[in-house]
Structure formats: C-alpha cells, structure tokens
C-alpha cells in the first residue's frame, strides 16, 4: 500500500509529450527540434530546449547527443602542480572556471574539468578528448612558445580557445593579456623614475608569455637608450618562495637592483616578504610594480602599484568564444588581447623624485 502511494506521488519522467504540452508545439515539431532539424526555426528550437532543461529532460538529452554526435561537454584543462608545499596553487583557476561557467550558463553545454600535471600531460589529455569524443570543445592555458596542444588541435580542426598565444604562425581562437606591453609599461615607468637596475621576476622561458615579458622589459631599456640588465631576469615556478628567494639573492649583488617588476600576486608577496626580512622598505629603499588578476594587491603592506586585469573577465570571454567556435565560427574572429589597467599606489621614484603615471 505504502509502495503504491509512493509510486503515485513520484514525478513522472518527462517525455516528448510533456514538452508538447508545455510549449504547445506538436510532438513531430518537438522531435525534429531535438534532432536539430533545419526545418525548425531557431526561436522555436530555443523554446523547446528551454522547456527540456526546465523539466530535466536528461535521458532524452543523452539520446539527442547520440543522434547528433555531440557530447555537450566543454572541456577545460586545469594544471595542478605535483610539487609539495606549493603556495597559491589554483587560486586564479577558481575565478577562471567561474567566468567560463557564467558563459555556459543557460546553454546545453556543461563544463568538464580535466586535471593535468604538466605540458606533456596536457598534450595527452587533449589527444584523448579529441580521439574519444569526450567534449565538443576545449579550453586550456599555460601556453608554451611551441605548444603541441595547439599544433594538434589546429591540425584536427577541433574547436578550442587558448588562454595565451604560442609563437607559431597559426590561426586559432585565443584570449590573452598583452604581456609585452605590460612589462614594457612597468619597466618604462621605473626607468622614468630614475631606476637603472631593475629586476624582472618571471616564469620559465619555455612559456610563451615569459618571452613576451622579456621582450617588453628589453624594449623599455632600448627606447631609453640603456642596456637592459639581463642578469636581473629571474626565472622560476612563480611561487611565493621563489619571489622571496629572488629578492634575497639579488640584493646580495654588488650592483643590486633598486626596483622589481613581478609577474603575479604570489611572487609579489614573496618579494615583499624578502624585502621585509632584509629591512628594506617599499617606496623608500626599493620600488615594486606587480601584475594582479584577482584584486589582492591593494591589501599588501604597503599597497603597491599594479597592472590589474580581472581574471573572471578572461574566463567569461574564453567561454563565450568557445561557444561560438563550437557553432562553427572562424577562429580568426575569436581573438582578444586585453591590456591591464594601471593602478598607481606608489610614486615608483628614486631619490624622492615623484613621477607621473
């Protein structure tokens, strides 16, 4: 008796007939829309898809995936370091995923996250996704100067959007920061303030944006008629420890730097820690300019000058571009390079000479 009452109260599984009753369209029209037939107007199809989502038409959606050959999955490769005691790991990726999720909201696509350890693991994951049809499109970051993932996906004509650009001459959708411009602007600002020994706290050169940063750093010195201090380019894993150790090592030099350009918030925190441990004050003994994408630099002590670009905006643009790419849009139309905004919190001068931003 109780079992029969329970069955009676259960919500029936939605069917095509359910969708017909909800929308007022015929069963034939509903069926054609779910098969993505071109005879159904896009506006009608959108109404039917919306109704399907509202009633949880999941079983039928899987059938639609089989009929159309689509997985309705948007894959994201998320790097996670295998190193122990690594600070700051994954902080930026949380907001990147949030932005992508916002772009996919209200569509039939769901995000699937594939954790990878390094570039080689990422290339293997990309190959599996393509070969096994695990997703209809792919987003990834950490772009190498010569990136095998981009080579593979371009050759396969598989929809993807990269966060960053490789150095090859290939046509693909991407979202990026103008890293060359940012490094140039930060370095030029410090040079204008009287600094000549400027350190660049940078990632390893195998990464494409690391080379972009070096290009901008060198260009600023060249335009000022000066020789760039290549001995003050530090390359590492961008951890807080790396930033701290860079300061400690560089300030032991006979011709020590008087300013630092930092690649991210984590290294900046380490630089500030290293300066504090040596009794040096930002804005008095040494100047620091950072790049920030999660809006934490205002809370550093002291607050420092920053080039700021919200990473959530980047993530949302990545998701929007991927949706358009999966619809067949030409990748040439899906390229955007952001220039971060300067937030001046320190004068970045040497010897008390205030410079203008």
TrEMBL record:
Q: Per its UniProt record, what PROSITE patterns does this chain match?
A: HTH_LACI_2
Molecular functions per Gene Ontology = DNA binding
Determine the domain of life of the protein's source: Bacteria
Annotated keywords: DNA-binding, Plasmid, Transcription, Transcription regulation
Domain (HTH lacI-type) spans 14-68
SUPFAM superfamilies, sorted: lambda repressor-like DNA-binding domains (SSF47413), Periplasmic binding protein-like I (SSF53822)
| Keyword Signal included in the entry's annotation | no
InterPro entries, A to Z: HTH_LacI (IPR000843), LacI/GalR-like_sensor (IPR046335), Lambda_DNA-bd_dom_sf (IPR010982), Peripla_BP_I (IPR028082)
Keyword flag Transcription: yes
Q: What SMART domains does the record tag this protein with?
A: HTH_LACI
Q: Which PANTHER family match?
A: HTH-TYPE TRANSCRIPTIONAL REGULATOR GALS, LACI-RELATED TRANSCRIPTIONAL REPRESSOR
Q: What is the protein name stated in its UniProt record?
A: LacI family DNA-binding transcriptional regulator
Q: Species lineage, top-down?
A: Bacteria, Pseudomonadati, Pseudomonadota, Alphaproteobacteria, Hyphomicrobiales
